[in-house]
Design a protein that fits this description.
- With 181 residues, the protein is mostly helical.
- The chain has helices spanning 2-9, 14-34, 45-71, 89-107, 114-121, 125-137, 159-172, 174-180, and strands at 141-144, 147-150.
- A two-stranded antiparallel sheet has the order 1-2.
- Helix 2 packs antiparallel against helix 3 and helix 4 (89-107) packs across helix 6 (125-137).
- The chain is elongated.
């Protein structure tokens, strides 16, 4: 419904995120009113925790949507990701290309040039080069000796956990950073 409203009234894309956040805050209020003890605060500890979490998440979502609509998203979208068509076929093709290039770089015994990768993967260089640029911008590949090689994970098998632990505080504090700017 929120997406329909956004399209029908030509509202910012973040409007639907704000509506969902307001619905979560409303759900927190509903849980607070219908739980034993009601709004008197005499309810059970799990109910109080659930209400607090729902209200906090909902309020944060509304604030995030508001600051994104007001200031714009503070993350710069790479050219490889931008400009895909609306039905998703181009986006899917780009993701498949990036995955194939990344896998080939990981399996290679040394640096590979864009033309070598294009020949191996039976793709054009115009498809491979943006994927390489995107992988390099995200730290998954590096440019060495006229070619590219896969960047080994810095933390080994714990790399996804460490990356998430670094991303989460930045994401949670993003609305505050936008308000301060």
């Amino acid at each position: 419904m929120a997406d329909w409203l956004v399209d029908a009234r030509n509202l910012p894309d973040e409007t639907s995120q704000g509506v969902y956040g307001a619905l979560v805050v409303a759900a927190a209020g509903f849980v607070a009113l219908t739980s034993p003890g009601g709004m008197s605060g005499q309810g059970s500890m799990p109910a109080v925790v659930v209400v607090g979490l729902l209200a906090g998440v909902g309020a944060w979502t509304v604030l995030d949507a508001y600051t994104k609509a007001r200031d714009g998203d503070d993350t710069e979208t790479h050219a490889f990701v931008r400009g895909a068509d609306d039905d998703g076929t181009e986006a899917m093709l780009r993701m498949q290309t990036m995955n194939a290039v990344n896998r080939e770089l990981k399996n290679a015994d040394g640096p590979r040039t864009p033309s070598e990768l294009a020949d191996t993967l039976d793709l054009t260089e115009t498809r491979v080069e943006p994927a390489l640029s995107y992988l390099a911008s995200k730290g998954h590949a590096e440019h060495v000796d006229g070619g590219y090689r896969a960047t080994p994970p810095r933390w080994g098998r714990l790399h996804p956990v460490v990356a998430f632990a670094r991303w989460l505080p930045r994401r949670i504090l993003a609305p505050a950073r936008r308000l301060r700017a």
